[in-house]
Amino acid sequence: MRIRMFAAAGILAGAALTATTVVPAQAAPARTVPVQASATGAAAGWVMSIGGPIRSCAAASCGVVYQTSYGQDVYWDSRKYNSAGNRWYHVTSPAYGWIYCGNISAPC
User: Fold this and answer.
1) What is the 3-state secondary structure (H, E, C) of the chain?
2) Are 99 and 68 in contact (CB under 8 A)?
3) Phi and psi dihedrals of 45, rounded to 5?
4) pLDDT band for position 4 (50/70/90)?
5) Average per-residue pLDDT in the chain?
6) pTM to 2 decimal places
7) How far apart are CA 98 and CA 88, in angstroms?
8) How far apart are CA 71 and CA 66, in angstroms?
9) 59 pLDDT band (50/70/90 cuts)?
10) Of residues 24 and 69, which shows the higher confidence score?
11) What is the mean pLDDT of residues 25-30?
């Protein structure tokens, strides 16, 4: 009889422990790279593309290196104005090149 009571108590204790088990947190996504200051003083980091090309230089006449799609994450590390006065962001992910400010969620 005592064995049954201990067995029943063990099953109840095991069920209680199972119900209160804490699941470990998942690792942070890869896009949470620490934000660094760019050469121009603005905070570099991840932004969302609204769709547009990454080009080989900071001008619309430059060749397309990669075509981004809406919602894609883009990492930039510096920005500059070209000779026409348009702001371009230097990106390193998903491809290495320049993207026009109107094609990402960063300020223009």
Assistant:
1) CHHHHHHHHHHHHHHHHHHCCCCCCCCCCCCCCCCCECCCCCECEEEEECCEEEECCCCCCCCEEEEECCCCEEEEEEEEECCCCCEEEEEEECCCEEEEHHHECCCC
2) yes
3) 160, -165
4) low
5) 76
6) 0.62
7) 6
8) 15
9) very high
10) 69
11) 40
